[in-house]
Structures are given as structure tokens and as C-alpha cells.
């Protein structure tokens, strides 16, 4: 693609980066076939190619974000399916990040939009605040219909996503170290996350149990928090940088005492962001080098386990598992075979639903900010999952688990919860009725 930036404009690091990305696009349009919003809407402006033209025009003209650009960029899921498809290697992820920051700085949002987006940014990344607000959800749920009619579908969507039953407290809560009872073979850090430890703390519990049983010390460092993905995808770049710095500080302090083998991520949306810390903090002199080194250590839990011999499972199952590959897993991190291989080795029958490349509509807080489109995508995703007639569904991202769970009666759990169960851990919450379909392997003691 030919660009028309002036030499003066290219002195701006943001515009110089946008220019280098835009030049790789050859207008081929292959990305439109795999874009979830284009598949739904059929509007060129809601495809990667169309959004690239809108962003190019905004950047080249060096103007404030127009309502049209803001509208169509807001409808982008950042599923990154276009990047998997693109033959030219266009870095759409960083281009749309640049556009979102520009929109946040120059666009004109309504008071309602500013309120909702600010509310999400100030609640979800902070577990204690988020936990307290969720406790009030039952009081607000009867008014969800009224909120929609009053023009606040986002608040109604938040209530719909809130758990209807009390979430049990996690066994491993807060910073600390889970020391293996076996000979120590590895030493890792775990990103505890923000929303995940509130909505389904069992994911962290299962991760820690599975690793600690197999010779891995697991450290949850004090001072670490949200990875920054949520605010970053809303264009709040300075907040994302601040949250990333906080994690770098916490993790670096641990590594200075003793080297670690990996930083384990069990929420694929977080994994995509943490692996990109080197880029996010590239203009921060005191953090750039540290961030790049730490990002290189980041591994999804399934990546780490694939390189680690778990041995034979302690339990064997006849359960049929539909594996949903989160967009941030398959497109953001290019992790495709590892989760399915691990589940098969653990004794599960793994099924792959049709249209696996299409987003479920979760996409961070997209299902709150764009509830109508997210609902259509969920309906499509659930129909494809149910078409393969599974017993249960597994995914590697809490957002997908929550989103898909709203549209189906099938139980859905994190991949690591199933692996923990197969290798000696307790039955995951929601799968109690399936205990009879799992048999202990002779020679192993059931948990």
C-alpha cells in the first residue's frame, strides 16, 4: 500500500510505526473471509481491509478521529484472525492499537460512553473492587430490562455476565509460593490475573496443583496485578503501560533473587498482551529491556505442559470434549495443537467444532460494549459447538468460558481444570454429574 506521510509526520514514532505497517498491505481482501464482524455484517468498513483504509486516512490527514472511524474501529474484536490469514504479514494488532489510542485522545465520545468505559477500567482490573461490585449484581439484575430501555444495554450486559451462584473462594489466594512436594525440577511465576481470580478461582488452583504435583514451584509475586489488556484495548495506553510496569517490577524483583524457568499464563487474552510487553514498553527507557526479557519467558500453561512430561494420567475418561480455541490463543499466540494434544493424552475424546476461527464475541469487554454483535457471535459459536454433540466444552480463556456459558446448557471449564482432574485433582465445578464417566487408573490414589 502506498502511503502519503510527510517527512515531518514520520518524525512522530506512532505515525512512523503506522506507516511501516500500512505499507505491507496489498489490498488482497483475504482477511475479509475470516473476519468475524465482516462475516456477520457484510460491510467493508467492518473488515480489516476497510478499517485499514479508515485508519490510514485518519493518520495521513493528521486529524482527530471522526465518528465513522470511531464507530467501525470500536466494532473490531481484535480477534486477530486477519493476521493468521494475511499473506503479507500486516501487523494489524499494533495498527489498531495505535488507532484506538488516537481515538481515545482525539475522538468525541458521549457522556454515557465515557461513563461505561471508565467504569470498566476502574473495576475489572482490580479484584477486590470487582468482587464487591459482583456481590451487588443480584440487586441490579431485576432492573436489566429497564436499563436496556433507558439506553444502557452495556450495564444490562454486565449483569447478565455476572455469576448467578456464589463463587467459591480459591484455595491459593494472594501472593505466595506453592512448593512442590516432589524434587524441584522447575521454578515459575504465575500471573494470577484480575477477573479470572474473582469469577473462577479454580483455574489458578488447578494450575498450581498440577504444577506443584509435578516438581514445579509456583510463585505468585506480591505487587503483580492486571496485565493491562483490558484498558489497552480501549485505547487507554498510559493506563496499560502503568499496569505493565507494575508487573515488570514485581516479576523482576523475584528473578533477581533466583532465576525462573517461565512466567505461566492461564488466560490466553493475558498471554497475548504479556508476550507483547517488549513492544508495549519499548519507549520506556527503564523498562524496555526488562520487559523484553520477561516477555520472552511468558508461556501459556498448555505450552509449558507440552514441554513437560506429565506421565500417564491418574484417571481415564470416556468424555467427549469440544475444544474451543480462543482467538487470543490461536491467532494472538499461534497456539493450536498443544491444548488438544494434552487433552487427548489425558484420556479425553477431543472434538473440533466447525468455524473454529470465528470469535465467540467475548473479546475482553467487547461483550459489554457491543452486546448485540457479541450476542450474535455467541449464538453462532454455540450452534457450532453443539453440532458436534460434546459432553463438555473446554477453553483456555475465562472470557470465552463466561461468554459461551451464557448460551448453552453444556458445562464449560478451563483446559487446565480437566488436566488437573485427569492427573489426580478434584472434579471441576460444574462437572460433578460426570464423575461416573471417569475411572481411576490402577496404582494411583484418587484425590
Strand content: 5-15%
> In CATH, what is the class of the largest domain?
Alpha Beta
Runs with pLDDT <50, length 5+?
none
According to CATH, the fold-level topology of the largest domain is Rossmann fold
Largest sheet: 5 strands, mixed
A few lines on this structure:
This protein is of the alpha/beta class. It has helices at about 15-20, 35-40, 50-60, 65-75, 80-85, 90-105, 110-125, 125-135, 135-140, 145-150, 155-160, 195-200, 200-210, 230, 235-255, 270-275, 275-280, 290-295, 300-305, 325-330, 340-345, 365-370, 370-385, 400-405, 415-420, and strands at about 175-180, 185-190, 215-220, 260-265, 300, 315, 320-325, 350, 390-395, 410-415, 440.
Amino acid at each position: 500500500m502506498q502511503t502519503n506521510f510527510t517527512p515531518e509526520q514520520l518524525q512522530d514514532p506512532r505515525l512512523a510505526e503506522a506507516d511501516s505497517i500500512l505499507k505491507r498491505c496489498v489490498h488482497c481482501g483475504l482477511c475479509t473471509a475470516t473476519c468475524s464482524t465482516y462475516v456477520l455484517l457484510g460491510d467493508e468498513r467492518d473488515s480489516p481491509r476497510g478499517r485499514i483504509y479508515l485508519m490510514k486516512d485518519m493518520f495521513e490527514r493528521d486529524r482527530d478521529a471522526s465518528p465513522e472511524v470511531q464507530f467501525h474501529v470500536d466494532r473490531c474484536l481484535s480477534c486477530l484472525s486477519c493476521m493468521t490469514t494475511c499473506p503479507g504479514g500486516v501487523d494489524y494488532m499494533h495498527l489498531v492499537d495505535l488507532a484506538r489510542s488516537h481515538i481515545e485522545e482525539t475522538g468525541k465520545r458521549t457522556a454515557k460512553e465515557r461513563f461505561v468505559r471508565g467504569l470498566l477500567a476502574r473495576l475489572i482490573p482490580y479484584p477486590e473492587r470487582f468482587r464487591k461490585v459482583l456481590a451487588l449484581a443480584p440487586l441490579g439484575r431485576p432492573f436489566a430490562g429497564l436499563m436496556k430501555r433507558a439506553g444502557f444495554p452495556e450495564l444490562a450486559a454486565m449483569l447478565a455476565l455476572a455469576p448467578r451462584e456464589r463463587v467459591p473462594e480459591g484455595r491459593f489466594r494472594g501472593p505466595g509460593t506453592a512448593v512442590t512436594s516432589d524434587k524441584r525440577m522447575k521454578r515459575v511465576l504465575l500471573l494470577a490475573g484480575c477477573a479470572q481470580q474473582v469469577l473462577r478461582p479454580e483455574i489458578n488452583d488447578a494450575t498450581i496443583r498440577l504444577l506443584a504435583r509435578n516438581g514445579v514451584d509456583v510463585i505468585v509475586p506480591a505487587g503483580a496485578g492486571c496485565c493491562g489488556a483490558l484498558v489497552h484495548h480501549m485505547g487507554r495506553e498510559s493506563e496499560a503501560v502503568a499496569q505493565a510496569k507494575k508487573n515488570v517490577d514485581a516479576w523482576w524483583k523475584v528473578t533477581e533473587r533466583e532465576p525462573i524457568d517461565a512466567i505461566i499464563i492461564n488466560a490466553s487474552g493475558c498471554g497475548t498482551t504479556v508476550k507483547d510487553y517488549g513492544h508495549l514498553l519499548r519507549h520506556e527507557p527503564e523498562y524496555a529491556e526488562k520487559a523484553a526479557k520477561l516477555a520472552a519467558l511468558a508461556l501459556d500453561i498448555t505450552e509449558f505442559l507440552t514441554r513437560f512430561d506429565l506421565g500417564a494420567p491418574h484417571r481415564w475418561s470416556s468424555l467427549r470434549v469440544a475444544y474451543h480455541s480462543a482467538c487470543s490463543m490461536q491467532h494472538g499466540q499461534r497456539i493450536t495443537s498443544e491444548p488438544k494434544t494434552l487433552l487427548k493424552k489425558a484420556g479425553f475424546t477431543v472434538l473440533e467444532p466447525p468455524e473454529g476461527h470465528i470469535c465467540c464475541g467475548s473479546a475482553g469487554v467487547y461483550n459489554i460494549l457491543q452486546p448485540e454483535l457479541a450476542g450474535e457471535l455467541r449464538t453462532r459459536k454455540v450452534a457450532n459447538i453443539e453440532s458436534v454433540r460434546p459432553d463438555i466444552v473446554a477453553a483456555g480463556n475465562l472470557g470465552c468460558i463466561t461468554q459461551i456459558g451464557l448460551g448453552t446448557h453444556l458445562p464449560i471449564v478451563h483446559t487446565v481444570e480437566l488436566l488437573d482432574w485427569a492427573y489426580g485433582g478434584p472434579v471441576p465445578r460444574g462437572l460433578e454429574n460426570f464423575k461416573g464417566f471417569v475411572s481411576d487408573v490402577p496404582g494411583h490414589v484418587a484425590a
